[in-house]
Amino acid sequence: MTLTNLGLPMPGRPPAPGMPADGPLLDSYGRIATDLRVSLTDRCNLRCTYCMPAEGLQWLPDSQLLSADELARLLRIAVTRLGITSVRFTGGEPLVSPHLAQTIAAAAALRPRPEIAVTTNGLGLARHAAKLKQAGLNRVNVSLDTVNAEHFAQITRRDRLDDVLAGLAAAAEAGLGPIKVNAVLDPRTGLDDVVPLLSFCLEHGYQLRIIEQMPLDAGHEWTRAKTIEADTVLSTLRRHFDLQPDPGPRGSAPAQLWRVDGGEATVGVIASVSESFCGACDRTRLTADGQIRSCLFSTTETDLRALLRGGADDDALEAAWRTAMWAKPAGHGINDPSFIQPARPMSAIGG
Ligand code: SAM
Ligand code: SF4
Questions:
Q1: What's the CATH code of the domain at 206?
Q2: Residue 17 lies in a domain
Q3: Long-range contacts of 20-25 (CB under 8 A, 24+ apart)
């Protein structure tokens, strides 16, 4: 593979016209990336139908995963050279990574200190929440699509709802708030289940965020026709709750927020497909095997692991990361007839 294939600047070649060599992590459309998503593993202990097949996937071999030291070095470059201000650890399931607490501590030791969050399915969170808080974790997002145990088992192919609920309670107890609950609605049960799910979140003080299902399933079975769209979710919720637009500024947040029943509590709807927010995207992504992706839907990657293991210095790693982000596409193009679903599923990218 050549350096050009990897998206790296060729030695002796000037950077892409207009690409700054320092300062914020810019793309050629003027967006600044400050939010880093780090996938720690592609493995998972659930098998959500919209993400993974029942039998799981061919996991990345350990030798291809970044080590804790490699991760710590890339985090340092991201924060101290590229202006990253928030880091979210995800996967696969980040709680199954042996490096999670150590990597959170490495991120928390950086200055300026980034905001540190984890997106998890919640299994095992009851055991880990206090320890992760101590390591420097600020917040968690817990993925939970339904509070109906039978539907939970159908969607995730595991009978583990009680473990997720225990994980949520432990996260609240450990002070990892505000706790967000991420829900991707199953087309068979989602509209029936979203009302009790919101009631559950309101009762416990969790912020529900409903995400439109995206074409990132390993089976490539997604179709827009099967997706429950934001408008349908809102009209279902409106039959049970009064929803008013949240007056706060939305900024680069993907969720459109609604105040529920005249109170402070909000519900968010992330219309990734029906109303993309790519124009305000502030994300850059690092996969568990050390690839930079400028977008969830990128079809190209930049191999920082090869550079790291080939002895590259920090300047070269920084330049490669900047070059990858400079080439970030304007948008995901899901609704374009020429759209190509990326080969990596969500679990191997990090959502
Ligand atoms: N395993 C962890 C979890 O489930 O929270 C972290 C990784 S998971 C890939 C991150 C988020 O991506 C979850 O909230 C999950 O619901 C969401 N997700 C997975 N597949 C998706 C898809 N096809 N479309 C939209 N969101 C998806
Ligand atoms: Fe695992 Fe998260 Fe994918 Fe579900 S969404 S299979 S919990 S990685």
A1: 3.20.20.70
A2: no
A3: 20/322, 21/319, 21/322, 22/81, 23/83, 24/82, 24/83, 25/82, 25/83, 25/84, 25/284, 25/321, 25/322, 25/325
Separation of CA 137 and ligand 1 centre (Å): 20
Rounded Cα distance between 257 and 269, Å, is 7
Cβ pair 225, 344 in contact under 8 A: no
* 50 labeled part of a ligand binding site: yes
Specify if 20 maps to a domain: no
Q: Is the CB of 182 under 6 A from ligand 1?
A: yes
* Ligand 1 touching residue 49 (CB < 6 A): no
* 19-57 pLDDT tens trace: 999 999 999 999 999 999 999 999 999 999 999 999 989
| CB-ligand 2 contact for 46 (6 Å cutoff) | yes
Residue 49: how many other CB atoms lie within 10 Å? 20
CA–CA separation, 222 and 214 (whole Å): 7
Tens of pLDDT, residues 112-152: 999 999 999 999 999 999 999 999 999 999 999 999 999 99
- Joined together, the tokens standing for residue 335 give 């609704």
